[in-house]
Structure formats: structure tokens, C-alpha cells
What does this fold into?
Amino acid sequence: MLAHLVTFAWDAPSVDLHALAPEIVVAATLVILLLVDAFTSDDQRWAASSIAGIGLLVALIPVATLAYDGVSRVMFGGGYVVDNYALVLKALFLLSGYIVVLLSTNYIAEGDYWEGEYYQMILASVLGMMVMASARDMISIFVALELLSIPAYMMAAWRKRDLKGNEAGLKYYLMGVFASAIMLYGMSVIYGYTGTTLLAEIAPRIGELASSTPLITLGIVFVLIGFAFKVSAVPFHTWAPDTYEGAPTPVTAFLAVASKAAGFVALMTLLFVGFWGRHDVWEPLIWVLAAVTMFVGNLIALRQTNIVRMLAYSGIAQAGYMLAPLAVAGTSPEAASQALHSIVIYLVIYAAMNLGAFAVVLAVARKTRSAELESFGGLFSYAPGLTVAMSIFLFSLAGIPPAAGWFAKIGIFQALASAGTTSGYVLAVVVAVNSVIAFAYYGRLMRFMWFEEAPDGDTTPIRVPASLTAALVITVAVTLVAGIVPSVVTHFTDPISLLALGN
Amino acid sequence: MKDFLNSWGLTLAMFVPLAGALVMLLVPKAKEHLHKVIALGTSLVVALIGVLLLTNFDYDNGRTLQFVVDKSWIPFINSRYIIGIDGISLPMIALTMLIVPLCIIYSWNHFPEPKNPKAFLILILILETGMIGTFCAQDLILFFVFFEVVLLPMYFMIGVWGGDKRRYAAMKFFLYTLFGSALMIISFMALYFLSDKVPVPGGGFAHTFDMRLLPMAAAGISTSAALWIFGGMFMGFGIKVPMFPFHTWLPDAHTQAPTVGSVILAAVLLKLGTYGFIRIALPILPHAAERWAPFIGLLAVIGIIYGALCCLAQTDMKRLIAFSSVAHMGFVMLGIATLTDFGINAAIFGMVAHGLITGMLFFVAGSAKERFHTLDIARLGGMLKQMPRMGWILGFSVMASLGLPGLAGFWGEFPAILSAYNPGGGLNVGLFRVYMVVAALGTVLAAAYLLWLFQRVAFGTPKEEFAHDPHVHDVSFTEYVAWVPMLVLIVVLGFFPNIIFHVTNPAVSNMVSAFTGTGS
It folds into this structure.
């Protein structure tokens, strides 16, 4: 009887510990952090950031060994896959997380904001992102999404006595939950039709159905809308500027880079594995989303006077650029592969340049205590190093060589042109026009830094703490090297592919 | 030596300035003299490499690319580090390598506010890398990168060291050119995907950005697609030239830029556009070029007349010279639009001549501005009395600019006009003869505005406010050193135009053979 129960109750799946090692390391670090935090006194809380940082770096080791191994590992009945695509993105999330830890170290310590808990939240969120990169099943995608989002809601409201901080957290939370609900509804509809949550099985089943199945269309659209919130695509972007402005700046950097990248990862997995074959539904939708996102993001950014809000709208526009290749990706497996590569490359470069820009904002705000554009006036006269670094990031965001952004943008143009359709070329022209509009506000910030005087005449140099310096050195190096020798990035992104595309 | 130049010559020429800039980054800002020495030394090393390239260039074989380097760069998009020069690039590179050291010498004691020689000279060196790189690149993506790199230093030069409206001018310059190059890169991408695949070294076939192979590979592109692609390139290059009606950034940029910025802008940067037409747009898409040529010719002659009329209306000397650039580049574009070897040779000559002459005019204008603190033509006068040498140099440059035979300007304008008499590529002869007449009228207008300028600035007696100004002194030593090479070249090229025609002609006639029919 007992033996019968045991065999009946649970059939343990075989677990490939090597494949899960990166996630395990991050989870273990989270536990260590929790214990250390519980048993140390207040004046030793600085250890938290070091432990978090080391944990994230150590997790890179199994990522590297897995990449060296080069075998795609499929687990849990195909719901969890560790392949090159997942590994590149896991490395991206770990490194972005590490840089965010560097950005946070002084900010959180000096602001006296519950250091232990803060780093636990970051680690939990990064863990969610790593799961997202491997998830190939609607349920695990949903779990990953919640795991990365819920800590982010809390981090957004970390300055709990600040009114804007509360607004940031609440807005992000309500919008995020709303988006999750819509997405979950879409998933349930798709499950209802196909009877499976496994993406690889969904694709053939919805491909068989007559194209006039309205409920499938509805399901796909709802799921896409859920992720449109996550990547802050217009018209689902309204939370982003307020949240970015109200959240602590390192958290803003985290949301703008890592969280957005996770949204794109899920989007690509869903479109290329789950909804492949139904590009007639998602291509037009994404075309419109991309075009509107670019225009609205850039045009509103022109009017911003607060640099964090400006970067928020610039990030919205950048999301539009990244969405663009998806709008033509369904034409052929080649076009999809081009789109996949171009978006992953864009995500990597975007992470470096945007985190770098936030690092400069943090460094300057240490002196000026302000994030207004005017506060950057005359920066060149008293902080030439920071000015040059910021200029490199801005040129990169604008797509001007030799900073890496140009290569990212060329990838987008290439993906759009590779489809060979009129809609692809039109969208490429839209991207081109938007690159010009975007330079108007990047250039405005540049003008304040280089061409104007310091607003209050205060030109004492800025003392940049060591962790911020490290973050700046890493991001500047990546931005420049990837711009001059782009094969450094493509070397890692070259082998990626997604299951359904088969190449 | 030859082997070394073959494999490293162009790469060194491109990146030695960048290395110099990096060294200067490490030197403290206060050591101004050291910065000047490093910058000048670097540009002279580049010029020396240039001399070696010139002496080792195989002139009998000017149609083929020389000093070619072909290395892997971005395998992902199949873009390679391909550099090389032929008879078309050689004069442009020589011009660049000459102008940059002269500009550094000229700035020696003349740094515009807010001084900071370190940053200023670093920007000039980065600019040199970008310019030489653009003329050497034989891969579309590499070309695009250098084409864009040039924007940055110029943007800062105008924005930081410029005149009162510098911020507006810098932004306008940047946004215009960025718009053009963004459309240009889409054209490059379309070209990449629509052209035939070519064999790759490792075996198999792939799309390519290689400018040497694209003329063949792009032959199969449908006419309508080719017309669109040419249109995108036209925007990129045409804004840079600048062609009417995209020229409006130029007067602002020229007027606001510091003297050296104006000189480099006029002498080299504008040529990146015309060079792009000759190097990329025409050879790769010859049949689209034939369809576009009447339109380009039309805009060119409108530019000639419009630029001249604007010159007549200017009250500021620098702005006048800027508009004269629009007119002169119109002649260059007209020469290109005829699609004849005669016209395109003239265009290349015109590019060099315009670089030297207009560069000289901007130098003189800058020096005048430094002495009088104004370039308001109505307030100037009597330069020949007050500063006879400067006055004569201005007169000489003006004569060269209006195309006086015996000076360099003549050989750029006259053959360009003449070539429109019998255009190639099956173009409408009647239409181009009309263009020819209009362009010839433009030379009369050019004589009018230039002589009028000279008359008002140099003749008569000095105005009361400057008559006893101790700041007003004649040509200084550094000015002589910077100007004499250019003045000498203007005369030498005027008497021996074959120096350049001999170099460019083989490459040009090779290219022109792609057009239907035969021109003059």
C-alpha cells in the first residue's frame, strides 16, 4: 500500500544540475544574504552589496562552462531549455544586475535604505529574468514574469517616505498587475484551444487552425499586450516616466535595462516558438506598436526638462526600435533569425549604454542633488571625464559611430531590409526619421554639458565613489569596444537560435 | 618600403591621428605648447605618409585600387575592413593631409574663445581620421562609419568655439547630416540584400558590402528598386554637398564655425558628399544615375544661380563666402550629372580647387575678423591701404574663386560647364545645353559678387573706427606659413592642371564606361 502510494504519487523528473547551476548560485546567494542580514548589526550592512555582487559574478562561471559545453539541454518535458540563446541572455542579466549593484552601493548605503532587503530584491528579480530566458512554457513564463516583477514593484517604491516614490511604486504595481491579468487571460484562451501550455506544441496546433479563429487572435493579442506593458511600448507606456522619476535612480536603471530586456526575451520566445505560423496576427500589431512607440517616445522626450524622464522616454523610443524587426520577422525563418540576432545585439549594447548613462546621472546628482537638465550645465568645465563618458553614451544611444549604438541600429536596419517587403522598408525609414528626432534631445543634453555655463557657478569637482567608477569603466569599455570591433559582441550572439526556427 | 606601404600605409594614415589624439588625452591640459607640438607633429607624420603614398602610387595604373588591405571586421553582417585608393581618392586624401597641418599651424596663436587648445586639437585630429578613412574605405559599412565619425568633432567645434548663434548652427548641421546619412544607410542595406550574392573566400556565396564587387553584383536590381536606393544615397550625399534645397545648414554652420572649422568644412567635409556620388552612387547604380541625372543637374544649376543671388544679398563676408560654396558645389554637381569622363574629371578638379580657394577665403576672413572683430562688409574697407599684403592675398583668392584662367578655379568650372554641352549616359542633350547656358550665367554672377566683395572690403580708405586701431596689423608669420602652400598650389594647379587630370582620368574613364552611350 505504502509502496504503491509512493510510486503513484510522484515521479521525480531528472534534473540536470549543471544546467540549473546559474540559477542555483543566485538562489543560494539570496539565502546567504538573508542569513547574513539577519545576524549582523546595522554598521555591517555594507557587506550585503559585496555578497550580492560576488554572487552574481560567481553565477557567471556555470554560464560560461555551459556555453563552452555548447549542448542545448532540454528539461522538464521541453518547458525549460538551456541553449545558447538562454545563456547569452542569462549572462546579460547577470552582468546588468552586477552593474546595478555597483550603481546602488553608495546610493543605498548613504540613503539609509534597508540594504539587506534591497539586494535580496535585486537577486530575486535577476533570478526571475534568468528563468525567463530558459522558459519555453506559458506557465513557467508567467512564473518567471511574476518573480522578476514583484521585487521590482517593491524596489520602485523603496523611498517610502517620498511621495513620488510611493506614486512610482503604486503606479508600476497597478499597471503591472493589470497587464499580468490581461496576459494570463490570453494564455488561458490559447490553452483552451490548444490544450497545452508548452510553446513548442502550441505552434503547430494554432498553425493548423483556420486563420479566421477569432479567439486565437484574441489570445495572441492579449498576451502581446501584456508584454507591451513590460517593454513600455506605446500606448501601454504611461507608467514608465512616472515610475522612472519616482524610483531610486539605480532601480530606474534596473527597470529600464534588465526588466525591459526580460520583456523582450519573453516576447521573442513567444513569437518565435509559440506563435510562429500566426505572424498574420502579430506582425501588423507589432508594426503599429513599433512605429507609434518610436514617434511618441521621441516626440515627448523632446519636451522633458528632467533628465531621468528624458531617459525614460528615450528608453520607450529605444523599445520601439527593438520592436521594429519583429514586425517583419514572420516572413521567413531567415528574416526571423535576422530579427532575433539584431534584437539580442541591441539588448546587449542597450544595456551597456543605458546603464552607463544612468551611472553618470547618479554621479552628477551626488553633487548637484538634482536631475534637471539645467543641472548638467557646464559639466565639461569641472568634470571633463564624466562629460566625455556621458557623451559617448548619448552618441551611442543616438547611433553615431564609433560608439556601439550604431552597430545595434545597423542590425535593426538590416533585419528590416532582409525581409524585402515594402512594410519593412517603410518601417526602416520610420526608424531613420526617429534617429534624427532623437538626436535633438540627446544633443540638447550635450549642449548643456559642453556649451553652457554651470548654473550656480559652482565648479568644485565631483568625487566619484569607487563602485560608480567601476560601473562607468565597464560600460564605457563595452560601448566603445563593441562599437569599434563589433565582432566582440557577435561572437557571443552568433550561435543563438530558437527551437522553432531550427537554424 | 613598398611592401610596408602596401600593407600598412593607409591604415597608418587613418589611425596615426587617432593615436596622436590619445597621447594628447594623457597630457595635462595646462601644457598647451606640448599639445600644439604633438598635434602638429602627428599631422606632419600623416603628411609624410601621404608623400610616401603619393610617390609610391602607380600612376600608370590609376584605375585600379592600390595599397589594398582586406581583413575580416564584422563577419556577422559580412562587412570587411577593406581600404584602398585609386586615382579618384588620391587627390582628396592629399588635400586632406595638406589642409590639416596648415590648420594647426594657423591656430598656433589664434585659438578662438574659449581657448582650450587641448580639446580643440584633439578634435581636429579625430576629424582627420574620419576624413582620411572616408576616402580610403572600400566597404559600405566602413565608409558609413567614417562618414559619421566626421560629424562629432565638427559638431563640437562649431558648438564650443563658434560665434554667437553657435548652438543653433551646430544642432542644425548635425540634424541635417544625420537625416541624410540615416536614409543613406537604409539604401546601403537595400543594396546589400537586393544585389546578387558574391563568392566568399571560405567557399559559398554571400551578400556583400564590398564596393569593388557591388557594381557587378548590383546589376540585377530592378529599375524601380534601384531608383529608390539611389534616392536614399542622394539624400545622404546631397545634404552633405550641400545641394539646393538642402543647403540651408551650410551658411549657418560656416558663419558660426571658428575659422579653422570653416576651412576644414569647406575644404574637405563638403567633398565627402560629392566623393560619395562619384565613388558609390554612380558606379554601383549607373542606370539609376542616368534617370536621376537630369534632376541632379537641375538642382545643381539652381544652386549655382541661387547661391550667387544670395551672395549678392549678403552683408557678412563669411556668410557670403559660404553661399559662394553653394554655387561652386553646384558646378561640381553639374559636372557629375553629365555622366561624362570630362565632366567628372572636372568635378574632381573642382573639388580640390574649391577646397584650396574657399579654404583660403575663409582663412582671410578669419584673420580679418580677428583684427576688426566684425565681418560686416559695410564697416570694412581700405584693406589694401591698411594691410596691403592681406589685401592682395584676398584679391588673389577672389580672382581664383571666380575662375580666372591660369588659377586653379578655372579648371574646375570651365570644363564642367563645357561637359554639359554633350552629356553622356543617353541624357537629353537639349536639356543639358540649357543647364550649360544657365551655369555660364552663374560664372558672370560669381564675378559680380566676388569683385563687389573685394571692392567694398579692399578698396577705398579704411573706415574711421579702424583707421588707427593698433590691433590691425598685416599678415603674421604663422599666417604666411599656413597660407603660402595653398597659394602656391592654386597657381601651380592653374598652370599644370594635368597634375590632377592625369591621376583621375584613368579611374574616371573606367567608371564612365558603365553608362549607356558615349559622351564627349
